[in-house]
């Protein structure tokens, strides 16, 4: 299997030029699929423009100058996906990866200080001793007690990833869409339609306009207001 891919074949969600060179790094296996993430090298080179080329990017990473969710990362192919937090300690800056209304990734500049991570519960597993393991959208797992449900979002501290808050997947709470033609839009859930077939469940969201999307694209981001900043990078 190739360790690179042609720039012309990259996902439409990558906000990079497609004809400047032939090859780009291919994401390593990780918490996000290759279609829903970007390699860390391209985030710091092409989006943040901290370096001019891949060699400089690898050097910056090797020296531990870039944090992902509060931890130093040296793998230049590490997949960076929705809601991941990129930290630059030397510049005292932090960014959150989000998607805009065109379905393209962008980095939201966070306020100085501690940041928190948002992750969705993808499924639950009951372990020996009746312990509950939550499997999250960022690839991490958490042991937790309580009435957690698939589709709920957790607000996590970083780098510890302790659970600070739970946002329920229910009617009336605030949601953000991260895929499809309504990508980047936010609004309150008006209805959740459970489909008794192989088709995905549907969610009706009321924002500036009312629209419908599938459950897979919906992330809970708050009750009355977002718990994370959603603005674009400066």
From TrEMBL:
Keyword rRNA-binding set for record: yes
Family that this chain belongs to: Belongs to the eukaryotic ribosomal protein eS4 family.
Keyword RNA-binding annotated: yes
Record-annotated KOW domain positions: 168-195
Any one GO biological process: translation
Name under which the protein is recorded: Small ribosomal subunit protein eS4
Example of a GO cellular component annotation carried by this entry: cytosolic small ribosomal subunit
Organism for this UniProt entry: Methanothrix soehngenii
